[in-house]
Structure formats: C-alpha cells, structure tokens
Amino acid sequence: MTRLVVGITGATGAIYGIRLLELLRSQGTVEIHLVLSVPAKRTIVEETDWTAADVEALAAHRYDNRDIGASIASGSFRTAGMVIAPCSIKTAGAIASCHTDTLIARAADVTLKEGRPLLLVVRETPLHLGHLRCLAALAEMGAAIVPPMPAFYNRPKDLDDIVNGTVARILDRLNLPQTIVPEWQGTHPRPPGARDRDA
Prior knowledge:
Layout: E1 2-8, H1 14-27, E2 30-36, H2 38-47, H3 52-56, E3 61-64, E4 82-87, H4 89-96, H5 103-113, E5 118-122, H6 129-141, E6 144-145, H7 159-173
Parallel strand pairs: 1-2, 1-4, 2-3, 4-5, 5-6
C-alpha cells in the first residue's frame, strides 16, 4: 500500500486537507500518516464542523507535531511523498530555511532530501516579497507550490466544487487516481453562426 504523509497547519483553508484525507481514505489504497499542528486544531474548529479528533480518525497513523523522533522523520521510512494542506507561511519559511524543530517541517525536509514529491498548498494573500522569495527557494529545492487558486473553466457551482478542484490537482500531481474533477478535454468549437454574448 502506498504511504503518504499529510500535514495540516494553522493557515486558513483546513478544508483542503480534510477533503484530501476524505478522498484518500475512500480510495483505500493509500496509508495516510497525518500530523496536525496545534494551530491547525484550532483552525479546524473555527472554520469547519469537524473536530481535530474526527480529522485525525481519517488517517491510519497520527503523530504529535513535537515528536521529531517519529517514523516519518527519517528518510529510511519510505513514502510516496508529502502534502501540507494548507501550508502556512510560517511552515513554508521553516522548510525553506531547513529549520526542522517540528515534525511537519522535519518530515518535509526529509521528503526533499530523499527526492520525493513535496506539495505545499500555501494559503496566504497578498504575498509580499519575503513570501515570494521563500516560495521561490522552496521551488528551487524541489517542492511543488500548489496554491489553492480556483479554476472557473469547469463551471464550479459551489464551494465544494472549488475545494475539489484544488484537491484533484494535488492527487493528479502525485499520480494518484481521482474522479472528482474530469480530465480537461479542450474547448468545444461554437456551432456555425453562433454569436458572442457581447457582440
């Protein structure tokens, strides 16, 4: 079974991590190793109807963010990669500077040094130059920066569609199956004689 490490930090957008966990659990082919930061537990309660315990119950394995001796803190523990969703700028900065005093940052550092996929769903706006430099450094180190930017070409009807759009991109980037957002098939030509709406 594929192992995947998932971190959820205190940035707004806890629903991205929760939806990712729900979909992975429903597939039954991914062994989820989950770390919630202390701020994440607060954000989950503030933003959703979930409790931190209910979110943790979606994972096969759960870790304390202070436990830097956990299995996922070692490169010898093989995984398919790691996703931090959402990823706070604080956590992104820690990873970029190799400041690994939390398990989330340490597991991310291990993911990078072992050449495994690291996806950071960075949730902050607007971004100042320091943020951009941090994200550029992470990209240079091999991380994939996956900000939750909604796409509208698939005509989202509600918030769930927008959340699913980002989560689908995460799964696609990890080469994991997903059916929540169909593969793009290109635009469809307009019938002959059709007029633009603004014409």
